[in-house]
Specification:
Distance between the termini: 17 Å
Order of helices and strands: HHHHH
Radius of gyration: 15 Å
Structural class: mainly alpha
Largest sheet: none
Shape: globular
Number of strands: 0
């Protein structure tokens, strides 16, 4: 379990909240071309499927390991892991 910072903020919860906000972002929808948004959403969906498959095969969803396997940054793998955990997919 994550420890709270001195200010009483749980960093794990803060990250989950940020992921939730990003995934619901109306700002992105309002500035992106519909075709680009569709392509991004399709790419993200495929990346999520690959993340889940790799995690099942390796028995680990470690962001450092997943970043190398998926060809994304560690921050990107951390984002995917948090998103998939929040959605109950892993």
């Amino acid at each position: 379990m994550a420890k709270c910072l001195d200010e009483g903020v749980d960093p794990t919860q803060m990250c989950k909240s940020l992921v939730d906000r990003v995934s619901r972002s109306e700002v992105l929808k309002s500035i992106a071309e519909p075709e680009l948004l569709t392509l991004f959403e399709d790419w993200l969906e495929e990346l999520e499927k690959e993340f889940i498959a790799q995690a099942q095969r390796s028995g680990s969803s470690d962001p450092v390991l997943m970043a190398g396997q998926l060809g994304v940054s560690i921050a990107g793998a951390q984002f995917l892991k948090a998103k998939l955990e929040q959605e109950g997919k892993i």
